Amino acid sequence: MLLLIPAVLLILWLADPCHAESTTLSVTATVLSKNNCKFDSKNSTLNFGALDPGNPIDTTASISIGFVCRGSAPMATFAVAEDDGLYETGANANRMRHTVVPTEYLSYSLTLNPTSGMVPKNAPQTLTVSGTVRGTDYQNAYAGNYSDTVVVSLLP
Length: 156
Hints:
6-stranded antiparallel beta sheet; 156 residues; mainly beta; single chain; 9 strands; 3-stranded antiparallel beta sheet; Immunoglobulin-like
């Protein structure tokens, strides 16, 4: 009976929340990709040229950007996305800002093709970026130069 009392006291002491300690354990892992896709160039320019508000027609421009996927897998899976630029007003609502009058903007749209796929590793590929400025968006626009910067990401 005397041995039972210290055991009961030890159990009560361990169960007392005043004596409990805890810690937080963060668990992380990084799974490496079997693919590594890179653009051929770090910078590209999509130029809509001179837009005439006296003849406000929709104007489209396109560029091609090369890329290649490398890695341990014979076929590479990729995805492409863009961030809508510096002056966006929402998802897919790109705008260029006037370079002198910072309160003036010009809307435009972008299309990326392809946005994803599987390609053989080490085979040169092409991303086509197309943009459109609608005539109705520039027919009353403030005259001058407009620009924006869009980040196009190629994953992985």
